[in-house]
Design a protein that fits this description.
alpha+beta, Arc Repressor Mutant, subunit A, 3-stranded antiparallel β-sheet, MarR family transcriptional regulator
Length: about 150
């Protein structure tokens, strides 16, 4: 009689053989590394991502924001409510399409732009690397994102 734990282990299932694990670990550690850099701005990492898009576009539909951030509405809505409560953004219906909600950058959100400009350099310094080494990773990671979409 064999037990439920009596099997030959497949070496392809070793943690160190998984591509997903280092990506998961790096993602969590990156988010953790950003925390002290974003604390003076009063932003979480997720809120920072939203603000990055808004600093670039000033106004964007929630649907388009979700597509850019790879977040569904259920995840995005509470995040946007917190930013709206802090008066960094506003949400309103698109007058051209009542089904669409637009997010607009408010003056308090725009005021965070200048201090936020220091964050990428601070992160590079924290990682003790040149910006180019991080930039070199981006194409491969973006390629993987496109495959998985």
């Amino acid at each position: 009689m064999s037990s439920a734990t009596d099997f030959e282990f497949d070496p392809r299932l070793k943690l160190q053989e998984q591509t997903c694990f280092p990506l998961y670990a790096v993602s969590r550690l990156f988010t953790k590394a950003y925390q002290p850099l974003l604390a003076p701005l009063g932003l979480t990492y997720s809120q920072y991502l939203v603000m990055l898009v808004l600093w670039e576009h000033k106004e964007i539909a929630v649907k388009d924001l979700g597509q850019q951030l790879l977040l569904d509405t259920g995840t995005l809505t509470p995040l946007l409510k917190l930013l709206e409560k802090r008066e960094l953004i506003s949400r309103h219906r698109d007058p051209r399409d009542e089904r669409s909600v637009l997010i607009r950058l408010l003056p308090a959100g725009a005021a965070l732009y200048e201090p936020a400009r220091q964050v990428p350099a601070q992160l590079a310094q924290l990682l003790q690397s040149r910006d180019e080494s991080l930039v070199d990773l981006r194409p491969a990671l973006n390629h993987l994102i496109n495959i998985l979409r």
